[in-house]
């Protein structure tokens, strides 16, 4: 399992070759003894306090060198730290911490988090680096600030002196290591000799003691002036007013970056390795809560003896602060939307509005079409009833307004109705004409039959009815019957 983990780390390390300069800016580098102080001096839990002397640095009751002085475990056991980045999440003023290596009491406590490097700082949902797969740790403010400033010095030793170049003779690193007397032109405090031993020398209270302190919001470290050699009580007067307007470097914060700092860095041989700060401090850390870490030391397992302390500091008095930070980040995210995002939202809104207007137009058109079909059907029904009732066009034109309304109360189309009545009348005339023609034909046929029958009777009664026969012949030859039929036919056709 360890071999596989080593191979994975070595393979992934190639991804960082092109970003070496970026890694140098964000990482806290090791390579010196000062880089070992952060986790080594992290605050021990009470069990370690009681057993520290008896076990001679033996650690947490049977863990061997897991939490004791000098640590334990080989370098190969710490490769998992390459998966993490370090993020400072809280500075608790007045929460004293002990540096056991020096026997030094530090005035404030720093809580920092180890986050998975691929997720540290990429989410806007938290200001604490990450919200899963992390471990929380506590350490004194001097130890933390010194580890960072020394790592910066080591990183830029060949190209720039980050702190000394900007402030000349003022060496910030000297004042973050411990509470130190500032003596103006004495080389940034170097001429003061034994630091706290100068409390009563050179006028005593005429000088300020400088050291690291928490910012007001508890999210950064600043350099401040103090009254006492333990940097427990800040000076009542500003540093500028007592030092001819000289501005105290990092007096408003900014001593520690608020971004994530990777544990994987490049050494002097241009090789990637877990830097000494993360590696050594992890081996010597106390007040640790590793229960959410997905990668950890498989040999020793997770150390969760500091979870109660850390949870109480993060979810107690600092809870509202982080809630407000999250709300501010949330508002800022939506206030800083790009113009492209706003245009896209406007386009979508316009499309939805156009769709609603189009749907309304289609519904209105469909309703009018249905009403038009109903009117046509009602008109057809009305004209049919008029035809059955033999209503003439002249009568329709003489209708009143009420009579011109159909069953739905809609004015009927009178020209269409008149045209329908005329066509119906013409059809009726045709039918009557055909019937009259058939009647005339039947009448002619009947007259011929009668003529033949009378001729037969005439032959039989020639002698006795000679005069009568002459009368009948005269009547038949006169075509009076045909004239009457023609008269009837002409009447019907007209």
UniProtKB/TrEMBL annotation:
Instruction: For this UniProt record, give its keywords in alphabetical order, as a comma-separated list.
Output: Membrane, Signal, Transmembrane, Transmembrane helix
| Region of interest called Disordered, as start-end residue ranges on this chain | 442-472
Q: Biased composition, Basic and acidic residues: where in the chain?
A: 450-461
Q: List where the protein spans the membrane.
A: 343-366
Top-level taxon = Eukaryota
Q: Record keywords: Transmembrane included?
A: yes
Signal peptide, first to last residue: 1-19
Q: Can you name this protein? A: Uncharacterized protein
Q: Name the source organism.
A: Fragilariopsis cylindrus CCMP1102
């Amino acid at each position: 399992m360890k071999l596989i983990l080593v191979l994975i780390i070595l393979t992934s390390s190639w991804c960082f070759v092109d970003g070496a300069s970026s890694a140098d800016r964000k990482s806290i580098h090791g390579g010196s003894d000062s880089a070992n102080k952060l986790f080594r001096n992290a605050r021990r839990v009470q069990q370690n306090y009681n057993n520290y002397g008896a076990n001679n640095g033996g650690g947490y009751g049977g863990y061997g060198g897991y939490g004791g002085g000098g640590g334990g475990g080989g370098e190969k056991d710490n490769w998992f730290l390459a998966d993490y980045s370090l993020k400072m999440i809280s500075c608790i003023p007045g929460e004293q911490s002990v540096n056991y290596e020096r026997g030094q009491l530090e005035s404030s406590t720093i809580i920092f988090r180890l986050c998975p490097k691929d997720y540290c700082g990429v989410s806007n949902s938290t200001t604490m680096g990450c919200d899963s797969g992390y471990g929380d740790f506590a350490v004194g403010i001097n130890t933390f600030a010194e580890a960072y400033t020394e790592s910066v010095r080591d990183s830029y030793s060949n190209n720039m002196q980050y702190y000394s170049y900007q402030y000349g003779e003022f060496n910030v690193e000297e004042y973050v290591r411990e509470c130190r007397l500032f003596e103006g032109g004495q080389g940034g405090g170097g001429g003061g000799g034994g630091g706290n031993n100068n409390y009563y020398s050179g006028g005593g209270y005429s000088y300020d003691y400088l050291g690291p302190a928490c910012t007001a919001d508890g999210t950064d470290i600043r350099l401040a002036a103090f009254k006492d050699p333990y940097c427990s009580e800040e000076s009542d007067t500003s540093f500028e007013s007592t030092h001819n307007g000289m501005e105290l470097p990092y007096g408003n914060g900014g001593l520690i970056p608020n971004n994530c700092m990777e544990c994987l860095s490049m050494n002097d041989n241009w090789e990637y390795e877990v830097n000494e700060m993360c590696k050594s401090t992890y081996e010597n850390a106390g007040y640790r809560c590793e229960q959410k870490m997905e990668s950890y030391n498989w040999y020793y397992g997770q150390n969760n003896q500091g979870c109660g302390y850390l949870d109480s500091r993060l979810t107690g008095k600092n809870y509202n602060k982080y809630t407000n930070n999250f709300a501010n980040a949330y508002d800022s995210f939506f206030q800083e939307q790009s113009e492209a995002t706003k245009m896209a939202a406007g386009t979508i809104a316009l499309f939805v509005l156009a769709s609603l207007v189009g749907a309304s137009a289609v519904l209105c058109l469909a309703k009018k079409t249905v009403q038009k079909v109903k009117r046509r059907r009602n008109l057809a029904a009305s004209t049919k009833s008029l035809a059955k009732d033999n209503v003439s066009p002249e009568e329709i034109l003489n209708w009143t307004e009420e009579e011109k309304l159909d069953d739905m109360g809609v004015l009927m189309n009178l020209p269409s109705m008149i045209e329908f009545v005329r066509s119906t009348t013409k059809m009726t005339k045709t039918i009557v004409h055909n019937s009259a023609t058939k009647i005339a034909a039947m009448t002619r046929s009947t007259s011929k039959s009668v003529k033949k029958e009378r001729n037969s009777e005439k032959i039989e009664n020639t002698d006795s009815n000679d005069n009568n026969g002459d009368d009948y012949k005269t009547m038949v030859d006169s075509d009076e019957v045909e004239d009457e039929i023609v008269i009837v036919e002409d009447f019907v056709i007209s």
